[in-house]
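[scheduler] slot 2 assigned
[scheduler] job type: sequence-to-structure, two independent chains
[scheduler] chain ordering preserved from manifest
[runner] begin chain α
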Amino acid sequence: MSAFKLPTVSDTQSGWGPASLSARFSDIPYAPYSKADKLGRIADWSAPEGAQGKDNRGGAGDQRGGRPGFRNFRDTYVPFGSNAANAFNYQHTEDEASFSVVDNRSAAQKKTTGFKSATSQRGGRGGFRQQGQQRSQFQRLGGNRGGFGGARQGAQGGQRGGRRGYNNWRDFDRNQRVRDASVKVGAEWNMLEEIEFSRLNKLQFEVADPEDIAQYGAIATYDKAYDRVNTKQEKVLQQVDRERDNVTTSDDPILTNLAAEAPREGEQRVFATDSIIGVLMTAPRSVYPWDIVITRTGDKVVFDTREGSQLDYVSVNENSSDPPMDSGDKDSINSPAALSLEATYINTNFAAQVVNSEQVVELENSNPFYGADEESVPLVGYRYRKFDLSTNEDEDISLIIRTEVDAVVKSAQGEESYITLKALNEFDSRAQGAGGAMEWRQKLDSQRGAVVATEMKNNSCKLARWVVQSMLAGADHLKLGFVSRTNPKDAARHAILGTQICRPKEFASQMSLQVTNGWGIVKTVVDLALKLPEGKYVLVKDPNKPVIRLYSVPKSTFEEAEEDNEEGEVENA
């Protein structure tokens, strides 16, 4: 019989625990332990295995099944001190991503299964039905929600996005597209500032009511017969033989004369057009590239546009989740450049057609860009207004803007109010870049609000710019026209399907457009320009990032291009 021997017991008088460490435990790392911790087990057969980090509720999100409301032990058990590197923590290394179930049913059985067929057509949880080969942005977003809908779609050919976390294949292609800058940055250009849109969104500035300096031109009366136009009684958009020039600031004779006048003592003056100020005030909404030329001379600053600048044209679906893109076909009528030219043509003719040219209101002075003996002078009114951008008594900054109004509306009491005329255009709801737009001829009369909401989403920057320009001009109303192609494949013929009138301030509120934020951006750019030394500068919107950059450029920049354009015009004449 073997002898019984008591083990050696280490006794410590200074605290709790062993007094010394045995040599056989010297290489084992320390594991933090609390009396409240539960002891881990190698296998827990009482709890079914489920999705790691989630409850197994037996619903659509359950990957492996399991009892509803029962949480996996592996997911809930976290040892004390697990944030530290611990050799005793459980590490799950088995790759379950490759787990799949083989569908061995016959083709006939698959056709009779109603739930799977409905899911594949409706796109899982998204619930947006696919129509033909065209997929709207709502369908693409719905296909990316994951869950059983996305998994089924991925298994059935990737109709709506495949595995969870992956977008539609068009989204991959869209992320790889790169736009070209509006102007080529020269090697001699020196970048002075770079401002992100996130910083611009935080700016705020209050501006008092402006002072009217002078009014030029003539304005026709709006023809109220176009308020009765609808999809069943559409009006053909006519080509009006009237030009409408976008004269830049430095070429405006009125602004040139105002700049030549002696300023008040300590006054700093800034000159611009409503188009340029509208671009600055809505800069955070812009996606397409643009540029503004800034010239600092003495105590004045002039904001200009280049010859052939993109700011002279109207964009189409700039803010869409899938905007129009170049396909490489020069003859494509749905490319961004072709659509922009078409939209500009529509706006010019719409503003000239919906007015009664026989009822004209003459302003204080004649049109400053046309002689009295010239024919086909455009009916447009120019209001030169001065805004005070001073923040305190020691500062005296005046912003002088040339604004435009398109027509006059007479009320029943005989009162006249200024309005601006703009047109939204529909090109092809099934083409790439349509942005999920509805068929206007089917929905415009019955669902006008939905059509406007879609346009506010796809053309947020353009509409915000129009609203700002109307407010700068002091217009009481903004008249929007809905113009569509007569044939989606023909970009030369259009029809007016309806009109809508709105107040600029109310429309700005509906678009979540903060005018004070726009004035804050203008104030920041003006202060930045006034601190620069005399010279020429260019403010450039990055073509692919929400950033604007200020460059210092040589004084001869863009002058050669302008001279070449003038020589070409003389030769053509």
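[runner] end chain α
[runner] begin chain β
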Amino acid sequence: MTYRQRLSLFFVIDSCIVLTAIFISSFLVNATIHVINIPVALTSITILISHHLFSIKYKLYKKFWEYASTKELLIILKVVTLSILCASLLQLIFLQEIQFRLLAVTWLLHMFLIGGSRFVWRLYRDSVMNKQDQKIRTLIIGAGSAGTMVARQLIKQNEGNLHPVAFIDDDPKKQKLDILGLPVVGGVKDIAGSTEELNIDNIIITIPSLNRKELNTIFQECAKTKATTKILPLLEDLITGKVAVSQFRDVQVEDLLGRDPVDMDIESISESITGKVVLVTGAGGSIGSEIARQITAFNPKQLILLGHGENSIYDIEMELKEHSGSRINFRTEIADIQDESKMMTVMRRYQPDVVYHAAAHKHVPMMERNPEEAVKNNIIGTRNTAQAADRCNVGVFVMISTDKAVNPTSVMGASKRLAEMIVQHINKTSNTKFVAVRFGNVLGSRGSVIPLFKKQIEKGGPVTVTHPDMVRYFMTIPEASRLVIQAGTLAHGGEIFVLDMGDPVKIVDLAKNLIKLSGNSLEEIGVEFTGIRTGEKLFEELLQADEVHDKQVYPKIYVGKTTQLYMNAIETIITRYDGMESKQLKEELLMVANKNSLRGNEDAIPV
């Protein structure tokens, strides 16, 4: 109804309530049916007028009674009490007495009937309109401030489809107590049992302070149930108003496998990037584009986006321009790093202060079938880019490498190891600081297992895993990119920085988690083992035994000890690869890349 209609309705109802309260009070006080007299009439008119005046003053008629609380109750108390006081004052003036018993009983009835008429609607909504059996029974993980806020919001939302049933919390002081009328039924270990006992269909994790390991532990318990698991939005999104408390999101694989973020040294990064010219090769790829995104936050003078694919470079340019406006000068270069003269032209044209070299072929099975492409792109392309940077006196050159470069068994890993040797060799005689940064798999990158698993799940399965014991290191793309940028500020020249990848993850466990996160069961989708592919290892390493440094140079960043370089052998491969058979080329690459484990090689060059 309209506000005018609503006001008229409340005016009539309250008038009836006031007159009824006075009539009943007079009857109870005088014990006679002849209750209409001058004192009663004077009291009735005074209370009636006072009630409406004070109701308008304190906005009693504007309250939304579906969400009435103690605040509204206090307003009713104030309006009723002031109305009775006005009646008392007029009785004293005109009658020279105050009928205390009449006014006291009237106050009680007035308070009871006005308050009851308002709160009866909320009771009706909660008990009749809220048909809880048609709602999704929900278990809330975390009975802290965030969890109680979520529970209160769900209880209030008449139109919502979630019905909170109970809390789970590891705090023994809260267990077996009721919070907002909901019991705390146990700790994390009780999730599966409580879900079955209470017929829970939906679980919401509401603990913003959880680290990744704790979240993973809770999710594994939730995964034992058939309930859907959701998580509270990010705290910063709630504070900034981007999302509401009730807008829960699905648990993502990044939540389970990513690690808690490391604070970046903003000052050192600003010194190396702010107001400088920065070039990113492979800027259309997963890592290159994220490095470009994060660099824009430091306001470089100019950012050159270089890549071979025009569509991907166009996309990242448009995205960065949209978010950065005109404060950064963006330039795009469609170029192949295998083109030596083109790379030299680009370096001379822009004279970059920092180069992040992310362009590379990274797909292991593809490179096994096309080893000559790995040589052209990963080895020759890196040499072209590094030599051009050296001749144009670039300040810092950061090459993105991989854990597969350690004791490589694949063409891709071997080619990246030789590329590391090339930049280390050029660093010996260059004014440019050349470094390499190694890390493992990044979540969601092109060619990674996660997009493949998601497609297989969408098609109904099965999800294919090569081996039940296959393990890999994982890191989110933003975290890897941040640490790459940070490693560039630590460069003295010649280092191989290694990012702390945390604990390795079994690929089969990753597949099972993705199936569960998609809302399916393992029985519906299934996991199928296909056997290890050529060039794959069961586990990856980040440093060889003779490269290991135990001390971190920055949180989650290690620097490997430099080892021997085999430049004569690398040059031989570069000059001969075009005429080699694929099998022979692969053998040559692996032999040179693994020479660090040999001793007394005459072509070894100490760093």
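[runner] end chain β
[qc] chain β: The chain is about 50% helix and 15% strand.
[scheduler] slot 2 released
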